[in-house]
Write a structure and sequence with these properties.
6-stranded mixed β-sheet, 10 helices
C-alpha cells in the first residue's frame, strides 16, 4: 500500500535523522547502495580515474604537479578509503578538490581532507550548505555536520565558468543553471575528452533525479550543453559510466516524458492520475520522483533555493 504524502514525509524525516547520526558514527547511506563499502578504482585515460563502490561515484586526475579530486564522499570512512585508492595509483599530493554539488554523499567527506587543500564549488552549492547549517528546522545531527562544513568551504566560488589549471591539469568547471540542484558543477577535461557530471548524470534511475531547487528544463539545457562538448566519456554521480549515445538517449527519454506530463497537467489531471498513467520505472524513496518534480514545476512554479536536507525530507505537494 502506498503511503499518503504526509505519512511518507514523516517517515523520511525519521529516516534522515538516522542517516545523519550514522554519518557521525561512520559509513552511512545517502543513496540506495546496500552493503559494506568496497571502493574500486577504474582507469580512464591520461591519468584520469573514477571510483565506484561508495555512496556516490567519485574521481581523480593525476597531473604533473598533483592530484585533482572530484567529490569527497559522505563520511570519514569514505574519505579515507578514497584517499587510500588514490595512494594506490600515485604518491603525488592532492592539489585541489572539485565538488559537483551540495548533497551530503558528495560533500561531507571534505571534513576529512586537509584544511589546506583548495576546494572548488559552485556559489549556489555553497549557499545551500550555509542555509542547511543555519536552518533551525534541520535535524540536529545533520545541522551539526553542515555547520562544521561551512568552515571548510571556499569563499571564492565558481559562478558560470572557470577555466584553470589544477595540479598541472587543464580543467573547465561549468555551471549551466539549476538542474539536479541549484548549484551543479561539471568538470570537463578537454584534453582527455572526459566529463565528470556529478548527479546531473545518474545511471540507476529511468529519469533524472531533480531536487526541489532544481529544474527539469534546466536539466535538459545542461544535457544539451554537455553533449555539445568535445567528449566521449561521461562519469555519472551514480551508476556505470555513460557514452555520448547513451546520454543522448536519456535526454530524449526525459524530453518525451516531460511533454507527456505537461499534456496531462494541461488537461487538468491530478498528480495521482498522472502517476498512475506514467509510473516511474524506479523510485528512490529518499527523493521526490521525476514526475512529482515536474508536476510541481508546472503547477506551483519553482521554489527558492533551500538547504540540501530539504531535498530529502520536504515534499512539493500536500
Amino acid at each position: 500500500m502506498k503511503m499518503m504524502k504526509s505519512d511518507r514525509a514523516g517517515g523520511l524525516r525519521r529516516a534522515l535523522c538516522g542517516v545523519a547520526v550514522a554519518v557521525l558514527a561512520g559509513p552511512a547511506m545517502a543513496q540506495p547502495r546496500p552493503g559494506p563499502l568496497a571502493m574500486e578504482t577504474h582507469a580512464l585515460r591520461g591519468g584520469a580515474y573514477w571510483i565506484s563502490g561508495g555512496r556516490s561515484n567519485d574521481g581523480f586526475v593525476v597531473g604533473p604537479q598533483g592530484v585533482v579530486v572530484l567529490d569527497a564522499g559522505i563520511s570519514a570512512a569514505e574519505a579515507k578509503m578514497e584517499q587510500a585508492e588514490i595512494a594506490k595509483v600515485t604518491s603525488k599530493p592532492v592539489s585541489a578538490i572539485v565538488v559537483t554539488h551540495a548533497d551530503p554523499d558528495h560533500v561531507l567527506g571534505l571534513l576529512y581532507y586537509p584544511t589546506s587543500t583548495p576546494v572548488f564549488m559552485q556559489e549556489n552549492a555553497r549557499s545551500e550548505v550555509v542555509a542547511a547549517a543555519n536552518d533551525p528546522a534541520a535535524p540536529p545531527a545533520y545541522k551539526a555536520l553542515y555547520a562544521q562544513l561551512v568552515e571548510r568551504l571556499p569563499r571564492d566560488t565558481v559562478g558560470r565558468e572557470l577555466v584553470t589549471t589544477l595540479g598541472g591539469v587543464r580543467v573547465v568547471l561549468r555551471h549551466y543553471g539549476p538542474a539536479h540542484t541549484a548549484g551543479d558543477l561539471v568538470m570537463y577535461l578537454p584534453d582527455l575528452k572526459i566529463v565528470y557530471g556529478g548527479d546531473l548524470l545518474v545511471n540507476y534511475t529511468q529519469f533524472p533525479v531533480i531536487h526541489l531547487a532544481g529544474s527539469s528544463l534546466g536539466w535538459e539545457d545542461s544535457m544539451k550543453a554537455i553533449l555539445a562538448l568535445d567528449a566521449d566519456t561521461y562519469i555519472p554521480g551514480h551508476g556505470p559510466i555513460l557514452s555520448k549515445a547513451e546520454l543522448a538517449s536519456r535526454l530524449r527519454d526525459e524530453q518525451t516524458r516531460r511533454e507527456q506530463i505537461k499534456a496531462m497537467v494541461v488537461q487538468g489531471k491530478t498528480l495521482a492520475e498522472i502517476e498512475q498513467a506514467l509510473p516511474d520505472k524506479t523510485e528512490d524513496p529518499m527523493f521526490i520522483t521525476y514526475t512529482e518534480g515536474v508536476y510541481a514545476e508546472l503547477t506551483r512554479g519553482f521554489p527558492p533555493p533551500n538547504p540540501p536536507w530539504n531535498n530529502i525530507v520536504k515534499r512539493p505537494h500536500g
